[in-house]
Input
Amino acid sequence: MRPRNALFSVVLGLLCVVGFTIPGSAAGAPSATTIEMVLTQGTPGASMPFRGTNTGTWSATGAISGTGTVVEDFQLRFNKQSTNIVYIVATEHLLSAVGTTDVRVELLGGFTFVSPTRIRFEGQWTVARGTGAYQTLSGHGHAVAEVDFVLADGGQPSNFVTLSGMAHVIT
Output
C-alpha cells in the first residue's frame, strides 16, 4: 500500500470510529427533572454583596433520582436604598452516595410576597459540574425559591427551593 493510501485509510478509520461511537454513547434525550431542597438559613456577611452559606437536604426525580445533603454558597445584593434584594446568585453543592453536582442558580429581579412572612424569588439554574455518577450531567431550567422569615428567625429549615427543567447524563 502506498503511504498516501495508508494515511487515508487511517484517517477514514478514525472518522468511522469517532462518528459511530460517540453518538451511540450518549444517553437518550434530556428528560424532565425536578430537584427540591430544604435549607436552614445561615448568617450572611456584614458588607455588600452579602455572602453566606445555607445547609440542608435535597431530593430529585427525573434524569437524576436521589437524595442527599446540600451546601448552598450564596451572594445577594440590595438596591441602593436597601429596600429590595436585586439579585441572589448561589451555587448548590448537591452531595450523595453516588456523586456530587454543583448547580448554579441565578434569582434576578427581586422578590414577591406570597404571605406576610414569606417571599418568593424566581430565576434560572444550570448544572456547572459533577463527580461520580453525575460527572457528565447536563441540565438547566426554572428556579423558584421561597424564604419563610418566621422559620428562619427560629433557626428552623426556612428556605424552600424547587429546580425544574431538563437534564440528562451522558454515558
Q: What stands out?
A: Residues 113 and 119 are 4 Å apart (CA to CA). The longest strand covers residues 66-78. Strands lie at 31-40, 50-61, 66-78, 85-96, 99-108, 112-115, 118-130, 137-148, 157-169.
